[in-house]
Design brief:
Number of helices: 5
CATH class: Alpha Beta
Bound molecules: adenosine-5'-diphosphate, magnesium ion
Radius of gyration: 14 Å
Shape: globular
Low-confidence stretches: none
Structural class: alpha/beta
Number of strands: 7
């Protein structure tokens, strides 16, 4: 298996997909979120955070770039690279979030991840698109050695 597709009928369904990720993924997982403005990237991360037991409100990090939530079952690092160009992204040294040496490993969710200069060896890419009726579709692909993460999602889906 190298990809999964989900039809998301409303915002709750998008958040529920995030929750499914939160249930399935281990510390050290990296999720690239791609798709247009308004496609549901932040909504998905809100569901993920809820599942991890984070009670702080998860807001869009468009202006803060990085929000760290440390109160849940695993740390959640929520990044949004929308306002940066690749050179600025490189200067941020974001590898530290998935290498786990400077801070505890958690789940790293990155909006506008296509701007990353240095990518992890393994990650899930979730591409969100709006469908003609105003709903959303998510396609999840495993990149590098992330196939086992995709398996875990498929297994806890039911
Ligand atoms: N499956 C869906 N169907 C309809 N609306 C959705 C769906 N998922 C999310 N939304 C709505 O889309 C809007 C933008 O979502 P947001 O998560 O902020 O997008 P992004 O972070 O990609 O810019 C929100 O109002 C959200 O409730
Ligand atoms: Mg967003």
């Amino acid at each position: 298996m190298s990809a999964l597709t989900f039809h998301l009928a409303d915002a709750d369904a998008t958040a529920d997909l995030g929750a499914l990720l939160g249930r399935s993924l281990p510390a050290g997982s990296v999720i690239f979120l791609t798709g247009n403005l308004g496609s549901g990237k932040t909504t998905l991360v809100q569901g993920l955070g809820r599942e991890l037991g984070i009670t702080d409100a998860i807001a869009s990090p468009t202006f803060t770039l990085i929000n760290e939530y440390l109160e849940g079952r695993l740390p959640l690092y929520h990044l949004d690279l929308y306002r940066l160009d690749p050179a600025e992204v490189q200067a941020l040294n974001l590898e530290s979030y998935w290498e786990g040496q400077e801070q505890p490993l958690g789940i790293v969710a990155i909006e506008w991840a296509e701007r990353l200069a240095i990518r992890p060896d393994a990650y899930l890419e979730i591409h969100l698109t709006m469908t003609a009726n105003g709903q959303r579709q998510a396609e999840i692909a495993a990149i590098g050695k992330a196939a086992n993460w995709l398996e875990a999602i498929a297994t806890s889906k039911t």
